[in-house]
Each structure stands twice: as structure tokens, then as C-alpha cells.
Write a structure and sequence with these properties.
This protein is α/β, with parallel strands linked by helices. The chain has eleven helices and ten strands. Strands 4-3-1-2-9-10 form a six-stranded parallel β-sheet, sandwiched between helices. A four-stranded parallel β-sheet has the order 6-5-7-8, sandwiched between helices. Helix 11 links the parallel strand 9 and strand 10 (about 260-265).
Length: about 270
Amino acid sequence: MKSSAPIGIFDSGVGGLTVMRKLIQTMPEENVVYFGDTARVPYGNKSKETVLRYTHQIIRFLETKQVKAIVIACNTASAYALHEVEKEFSIPILGVIQPGAEAAVKNSRNQRIGVIGTYATIGSKAYESSIKNINPHIEVFNKACPLFVPFVEEGMLEDILTDGIIARYLQELRNAHIDTLMLGCTHYPLLRTSIEKYMGNGVVCVDPSEETSLKVQKILQINHLLNSQNQHPKYEFYVSDSAQKMVEFANMIMPFQIEDVQTIQIESF
């Protein structure tokens, strides 16, 4: 494996671009291949078996791009598929849940942590299990917030309607006196400002992508695969359906403009 090989990142849709953004901030020299499964989004209402099949297909596609590591940016796929695919593929594969759990435990002072995510992520209790494996004395308060995703994709990051839905979902977590809130969906960090405003200064919002990026960097460093001499990193973007949403969302949040997004038949992998 060459150090110039790209890092692969995938998500059920475009939300994983928030993870890619953090990754290139941490390692600006790295080449990246991103895949968004826009034809089959969301994963949050799919069965474990279906999400596992999708994950296998996407990893096989990323292998054709000769990636040196893969980040499962999707929280649902991290919860449902990571442990299976880690055993089946030789390439390093990381999810966002364990790094996020570690960051939440490190930040919490009163051992009361809130977790928000899709129905699937919350239903899997993956974050809760990971947090309690680190510290069994921590109380975890879970809340599914499914409407956050469409609000983000409509660009309503700071809006009176967004404030209303945040208050509706998060009131019980605020009343639970948590001091740390896990943003357990790749879209949610884009609502961080509004969420922090509602939750108050005493609550730290944890974005799993930050800790995940540091873990990827460490793994590449250990394996002597950091691409530290690259002055012109290459970014490739692929989707399984219309590229328009990808381009619009990416150009809203990324530090550069995206023009070329390729559509592939992911079911063929």
C-alpha cells in the first residue's frame, strides 16, 4: 500500500461530508474518495441485514479505488455493520461511534450524557453500550431526532422553525441535567450553534468526526502511510443517484467548490 493512496469515506447520503471536512482539516495532505449512497438514503429506517449488505457493496467499490483506510461516516452503518466488516476485510475500517463515545466520556464531568441520532442509531444503543463499556457509572439519555436531517439538507441551520424543533426534541435532555451531548448523526454538527444555544453553556456538544479524524491519523502514522509530502490533494466524489443534492450540500459546507460528482451503480458491487 502506498502512502499516496486515498482515504475512503462513505455515508448513506451527503451528511458524511461533515466527517470529510474534519478529516481534511486534520490531514490536509491526504487524497480522499467520498461515496454518498443517495439512492438508498436514509439508512436509519432500514434493517440491520439491509444496512450490512449496503456496507459490503460500498466497501467493495472503495477497494476498486485502492484506498488505504475506510471511514464509515454513517452512524447507522457504524452501529449495524462495523464489527462484521472489520473481520472480513484486511484494510483498516473505522466507524464514528467508538471515537465519539470516548470523546463524550472524556468531556463529561457529572457522568450524565445525552445521545441524539436517527431511530436506528438510538434503537441500536450503540453509543450507550460504548459509553458504558468505558465507564459503567455514566447515565445515558437517548433521543431520536429524525427531523434534524431534512432541516439541515434544506439549509435551515439557524431558523425559527429549526429552533422550535430543537426545543421540542431536546427539552427532556435539558431537563435531565446532562453536561455532554453526543451529536450522533453526521448532519447534526451543522446544527451545533443552534443546539448549543438551546442547551446552554453548561453542555458540551461532541462531534464524533473530530475524534475519528485523529484516530485515522494515528493508524496511518503507525503504518507509515501518512501522505505528508502531498501539496495538491485529490478529492473524488461518487453517488448512487442524482448528484445535484451532493453538489448543493457540499458547496454549502466544504472549504472549496465541488463541480465533478460521478454517479455509479452501487448494486453491481
